[in-house]
Amino acid sequence: MTALPSLYISHGSPMTALQPGQVGERLAELAQAMPRPRAILIASAHWLARQPTVGGALRPETVHDFYGFPRELFEVRYPAPGEPALAARAVELLDRAGLPTMLDPRQGLDHGAWVPLRLLYPKADIPVVPLSIQPMLGPRHQYEVGRALAPLREEGVLVIGSGSITHNLHDFRAGFSEENEAPYVRPFIGWIEEKLAAGDVEALLDYRRQAPFAERAHPTDEHLLPLFLALGAAGAEARAERIDAGIDLGFLAMDIYRFSAR
Q1: Residue 25 lies in a domain
Q2: pLDDT value at position 1?
Q3: 130, 49 contact by CB (below 8 A)
Q4: Please, which residues have CB within 8 angstroms of residue 148's CB and are 6 or more apart in sequence?
Q5: pLDDT tens digit string along 19-58?
Q6: What gap in Å lies between CA 163 and CA 139, rounded to an integer?
Q7: CB within 8 Å of 242: residues ≥ 6 apart
Q8: Domain harbouring 229, CATH code
Q9: Which is nearest to 9 in space by CA: 259, 228, 188, 255?
Q10: Position 1 in a domain
Q11: Engineered SS bond to 80: which of 100, 124, 169, 242, CB 3.0-4.6 Å?
């Protein structure tokens, strides 16, 4: 079986589910361009835990982990099945790599998971297993989690990290728009693209010191950490392909990355 790529997706606002825009178009195109996976393992920036935790539900619920949005959004469901056997396999791989992992038999799919999955595979007919991230342990830990899970790509599993390439929600009140972009966004995403193209993993792992406007683009780490997981899952010689999906609201860059072996 040909190894699948791994993906990093900027999932944007929950409203992306109803107003998919450019990211919806790009994800639909991406699904058509890739082999169909037998299952999906997705790490969302919205499921945080102190140690890696894998969702083992047979029928994971659609979690509406937000408020203040239209009623229509709360009625959206993504009824994909789970796959307990894949959850157990992920736990096995992480434990073997020295990353003690828990299994949660009740965890559902938060909007960082179901919103992009609904755009990739709208029929919800591919089993999905969620995975937590560890915001206190930093990029290198998340990269090692991805490396431990790399064998899944050769087993027909699509590994996805879902976050946001820039994520500073304080800027909702800053007056940015499509006509008035936040000045830090393009320098930051350009630096990420440059380092990924060069395969400079060490610089990327040290992004908070080295990247321009890093703390402005990410006051906290959690929305960029899934990038490192997806990068790690692609293997040591990963090739990164950036897919431009625009900049929402003038400050939320919607970049998607497809990582594949060179």
Answers
A1: yes
A2: 62
A3: no
A4: 93, 94, 96, 97, 99, 232
A5: 999 999 999 999 999 999 999 999 999 999 999 999 999 9
A6: 13
A7: 193, 196, 255, 256, 257
A8: 3.40.830.10
A9: 255
A10: no
A11: 124
